[in-house]
Amino acid sequence: MFEQLEKYLSERAIFSTSELERISSKFDFEKVSRNSILLGFEDVSQHYYFINSGCLRLFTINNDGIETSRYFAFENMFCTALPSFIDQKPACEYMEAIEKSELLKISRVDFYKLVNEFSQFDKIYREILELGFITAQQRIYGFQGFNALEKVKWVIKNQPTFLLRVSNKMAASYLGISPATLSRTKAKL
């Protein structure tokens, strides 16, 4: 149950077996079904998730009921509504399992205890934050000047399995194009 998490951590820093066991002991296993909402719009994020299997999505819904996907996390990734997790204010977005998923969940309190207790865990957390920031910046600034084909090519290059696992509707909202445009663009590749 904790093998993937321990492998993920060991590939990024040096931990003893006892340290890995201590870290793993702070996580709880959770199985969720497809379309499960893990965090509501008004909720404050109290957990960080490591994905053993499945996919989580962060998204918003505008006044017209249109969903906009902001982030997708797959196996061997961490996911939470990070601004809410950090500042303890309402998320103003939803977190949903878009596939049947097996997750390891850690409370905010325990997560920050590990960050403070293990410098290697703190380093991994910083790497997660930095990678998330870089990816978000590349997506925002890149997408501003990209046409639909360039956006689809970007996502294929940066997230190769994304279009295979995410519905056209969700993928289109992430890319900022219509589902019809996405279908036409994929047909050109």
What is the strand and helix layout of this fold?
Elements: H1 3-10, H2 17-24, E1 28-32, E2 36-39, E3 47-53, E4 56-61, E5 67-73, E6 78-79, H3 82-87, E7 94-97, E8 101-107, H4 108-117, H5 119-145, H6 148-158, H7 162-165, H8 168-175, H9 179-188
Helix pairs in contact: 4-5, 8-9
Explained architecture:
The protein is of the alpha+beta class. The protein has two domains: 3-145, Sandwich (Jelly Rolls), CATH 2.60.120.10; 147-189. Helix content is 49%, strand content 22%. It contains nine helices and eight strands. The strands form two sheets. Strands 1-8-3-6 form a four-stranded antiparallel β-sheet. The longest helix is centred in the C-terminal third of the chain and has 27 residues, at 119-145. The protein starts with a helix and ends with a helix. The relative contact order is 0.16. The model has no long low-confidence stretch (mean pLDDT 95). It comes from Aequorivita sublithincola (strain DSM 14238 / LMG 21431 / ACAM 643 / 9-3). Residues 31-116 form the Cyclic nucleotide-binding domain. This is cAMP-binding protein.
